[in-house]
Design goal:
By secondary structure, the protein is of the alpha/beta class. It has a single domain, classed as HUPs (Rossmann fold, 3-Layer(aba) Sandwich). It is built from four helices and five strands, in the order βαβαβαβαβ. The chain has a five-stranded parallel sheet with strand order 3-2-1-4-5, sandwiched between helices. α4 links the parallel β4 and β5.
């Protein structure tokens, strides 16, 4: 069954990508890599440009499962986009990365992560 990874072009994002690849290969794939773009926001460090997507593709070359990349545009809620993709792909696992620089207890992992953990119709792996 499918594994979906929410990808951002950061150290944490690449760690999530590696974990998602491993999980997809163990589960028989495919691996769907999703980068969410905020509509109307040009300079967001979470938006992967062509070069960053190519680096991610290089990281996944040689994977033993099918790999697909999707860039989805959202005007509001990133979690809703990832949940929609999980449902569309009938994924059995969603992989997300969490920045470790922030104090986790402050907002109990942030609203997006909370929503994903509470609403995902599948297992969620937090890297």
């Amino acid at each position: 069954m499918a594994v979906v990874v929410g990808f951002i072009p950061t150290e944490v994002g690449f760690a999530a990508l590696a974990a998602a690849r491993q999980e997809a290969e163990q589960r028989g794939g495919p691996l769907i890599v999703v980068n969410v773009l905020r509509e109307g926001v040009d300079e967001d460090p979470r938006h992967a440009n062509d070069q960053q997507l190519e680096i991610a593709r290089d990281e996944l070359r040689g994977a033993t499962v099918r790999v697909a990349f999707r860039q989805e545009t959202v005007d509001d809620d990133i979690a809703d986009v990832l949940l929609r993709v999980v449902t569309e792909e009938k994924a059995e696992l969603l992989v997300i990365g969490v920045r470790r620089q922030r104090e986790l207890a402050r907002h109990l992992l942030g609203l997006t992560v909370q929503k994903l953990l509470l609403s995902a119709p599948c297992e969620v792996l937090v890297v």
